[in-house]
Amino acid sequence: MRILSLDLERYGPFTDRRVTFRRDARLHVVLGANEAGKTSALAAVTDLLFGIEPRTRYAFLHDMPQMRIGAEILGSDGQALRFRRRKGNKNTLVDGSDAALPDDALAPFLGGLSREVFCRAFGLDAEALRAGGTEMLNSEGEVGASLFAAASGLRGYTTLQAGLDEEAANIFMPRAAQHRTFYQALARYDEARRAIRQGELRSGDWRELNEEIEGAARRLDEIRAERARIAAEQARLQRLKRVTPLVAEIDALTGRAEADADLAALPEAWTERLGQSLAQVQDATGAEAEARAALAAAARDLAAIPADEGLLARSEEILDCFRGIDRFDKGGIDLPRLQGEADGFAQDLERLKVRIGLPDAEALRTRQPTDAARTRIEGLLRAGRDLAAALNRITAERAQRRAEHARITRPRDGDASRTGDDAGSRRDRAGEEPLIDPAPLRTDLKTLAPVRDDVARRDALDAAIRREAKQIQAQAARLAPPVADLPRFAGLRHPSHEAVARFGREMEAAERERNRILDRGETAARALAQTRERLRRREAGRPIPTRAELLALRAERDRLLAPLRAAAMGEPGAGGPADIVRFETALAAADRGADDLVADAARAAEQAADLLRLDAEEAEAEAARTGLAAIDARVEAGWAAWRRAWEPAGIEPTPPAEMAAWLTEVESLVADHESLEARRAEHDHLVARIEVCRAPLTDLSRRAGLPDLAGLDVGLILARVEDRVAALATTWEAAREAQASARATAEQIARIEAELAEATDRQAAWRAAWAEAVRAIGLPPGAEPDEAESALEAWRAVPTILREHDGHLRRINGIRRDMEAYRAVVAGLTGGLAPDLASLPPSTAMKALHARLQEASRAETRRQDLARRRAAADEVLAAAGRAAEAARAALSGHLTERPEGVSLPVDTDPAALLARLLARDALRRELAGRRAELARAADGVGEAGLRADLAAASADAIEAQLRQLAMDDEDLDQRGKVAFADRDRGERRRTELEGGIGAELALAQRKAAEAEIHSTARQWAVLKLASLLLGTAIGRHRSGQQDPLLTRAGTLFAALTGGAFAGLTQDYDEADTPRLAGLRGAGGLVPVEGLSEGTRDQFYLALRLAYLEDYAARAEPAPFIGDDLFLTFDDARTAHGLEALAAFGGQVQPILFTHHRHVADLARERLGASVDVLEL
């Protein structure tokens, strides 16, 4: 299986990101910088194939239900599948339209792999690679264990198998031991069996004992029944005792309620309105008194506050001067400090004068050396020290080279200084192969070196041409709609990508408009239905009053009032008693209509609003229907134009979105076909060019001393010749090495002598320049560099100290000037506004003056506020008087509006009347509460029944009966305890006789021991089976896959090590155990423990890749995923690893994820077109 594309639609940090893998690439390198999403893309491959985990950590950008991954995969049989994976619990495999795919749709491509097996066997990172090498080291390279680790990706199995065997031995071994858990459980089992045998069942007075137990049980039942009867009678008497005071209270409250019968007709609502009217009168009267008091207080406070106009007029001047206090005070604090620092700098100048040797401090200012002079001296200091170091180094190097030359030129075996020709003569006399100068051969071979690339490109082109032709044919067959002839289609007229996009946009816009209109219509229909339902429900209830009906009733009332008014005025046409009755009826009807309209004002308003809303919603629904018909016609016209656009090409189009992708695929296939034809022409040209080189290569092989190679392929001839020339060059260079070394050493000695003379001359010139330069800093010409460095250090400090000293003097003068100006301003203010402050320091005087200004400002603000309060209090007093008068009128009106049949004395006190009415209402509530309390205390018994029982028994009789029942119950309780003790004692005795003392405990111990024996036996069997299964698996890998797997692994190991090792082999230790070892090119064996850490990692990688190749030959392989696999490799090892992965890519698709750009660059450099580098 190969992944052709990976769609990261909504996963991790990605949104609509597609990663396309080239089909012809032998290695894919996915490059992602830090925070670019490499880890998320790596996890996406596993989640794509096996499902997104329930608690995924890649839902930080998109919500879990929205997560989507897609891909197109290709099986080894050419079958392709495009699918998507969504986050969910079932039906997570979907196609492009989110339609569910079968759960086993990926089974033909995965070949039965599980998530864990895929991650272990087909996934590898640098940490796992290093751990695999360590595992081989731990198993000492044992063949079966190493092959099993590489195949499964498991680690720690050697230690695991030993641990399983040890744990099983601690449970059971044929030889008994007390520390083994099986024998411990067996001992407890035997002990329990002995305890059971010792306890025997004894015979006795069995029947008598059973009869005693049954008699005690009967007595207990009789006692329980009698106690239940007593409890019921006690409950009845307690209930009567409990309700007696409640019945008495109810009777008393009923009598008190009948005393105020004259107020019974006044309803509680009238009483409540009376209380409200009294409260309003009291509140209004109190508010009027408070307003009058507030007005008097405001006037009194305003008269008590004086005003200071002089200070307020010059407030800005005072504030400006007040803001300068901090600066004035800071100047007074800084002045002594600055003066002290200035004095300190003057002392520093005196000390520098002494260090440099000048007569006074002023000379420091006039005789300072220039920057150029100081820089020159500093440069000469560095140059002098460098020259001294160089002389010491050159002298030491001359002594070393002279010793080396003496060692090289010392005669060894009598021929160390002979030339290469002499060595060649000796080789001839010894019968060895004569030396051949490789330079002419290398020169000729260099001109033929490009043929190597041509051969490699020819082979790659041949494989690529066959593969691409097959892929183009397969892809063309899978197109929908199909294209029979790609070149012919390219010449036909068909819509461009822009036209397809335009059609897509138009159709999408029309569809969006249609959906919008549909939503608009649905919304209008829902609103219309809701409005009609509200109208229906509202009209189904009581009639809704309207203002028009109320106006009609009032008109009728006014019409009937006219004759009565005429009668009252003595006018003709006056009405009679019937008119009065009709008027009162109309007046009552008008009042009821007004009351109904007020009560149902909300319903009436809602009814009117819904009627208006109904008209608007009907118009909206009709507009939506009209718009929908128009947009449907527009959509149909658009689809017709879309089909006409594809008629010249003979294509029945699908929707524009699909045709855009289809057109891209077709154009890509046409371009691939053209590229394929170009590659075929290039391949033919390469074959011809390679054959031209056959004759020169054959001649070169004869000159290099090789046998006839004419029948071999040109590439093989070139490889043989290159190896031969490299061997000749090694031999030739070794023969010349002694002479070249001696000559080079002599040349080095001569060069060092010249350098020493040159350094001596430079030192003399330096001394002359030094003598002249040190005069600028007051030193004699013979002064040493250390003296000059000390003088320079002193001169470096002079400019800074001079600058600081002068700056401090300037600041001192400025502060004194500013302080004198501030004193003058303060004196002017205090003289005109507060002469009593003139004798104070400026800061103190200004603070006092500012405090007086603040007090004057607060007083003025207070006066303005009190004036406003006095005006407001006057208004409040007038309003309170009006409110009090209105409240008293309302109270009088309420007293006259009494219910019919109720009369009150003319001089009735409203407050006393309210108190009587409130007392009456409280009495009624209390009576209702007592009756409710009686119902709760009566346990469901009616009041009449309770009164009947109370009439039949006095309180004393009830109490006497309760006492007697309590004594009877206590007696029964004691008798019950005796009967219970008799029964319990008999039952325990019977239990002892049935099982014997300790039999039950011994039986429980035996069962527990049996369960423990079963558990330990099962645990031992599981451990032994696990160890045997693990050993069998390792043995199978050792015996079944050893030969073919080791051969291929050896080839890969040689490639990974760049030829440092020729392959892998197996060796046997003292116990005849086969163990893996590396085979060097010279034939030596290196065991696993002798390999370096990096080479051991390459060893493990070779085994893993060989196993996956073997797996691919037997089943459908998944892609091999490497995560920064070469993190611990240097560039050379990384390059060899990339080449090995590319060689492995013919059978399994290798995908290497990395965040190191140099890995991608190495891949491009070594593999060229065979690598597919993708950047996230």
UniProtKB/TrEMBL annotation:
Domain of life, source organism: Bacteria
Region ranges (Disordered): 398-440
Coiled-coil residue spans: 206-243, 500-538, 735-769
Compositionally biased intervals (Basic and acidic residues): 398-432
Designated name of the protein: AAA family ATPase
Pfam families xrefs: AAA_27
Organism: Methylobacterium soli
InterPro entries linked to this entry: P-loop_NTPase, YhaN_AAA
Keyword annotations of the record: Coiled coil
Domain (YhaN AAA) ranges: 1-206
Keyword Coiled coil applies: yes
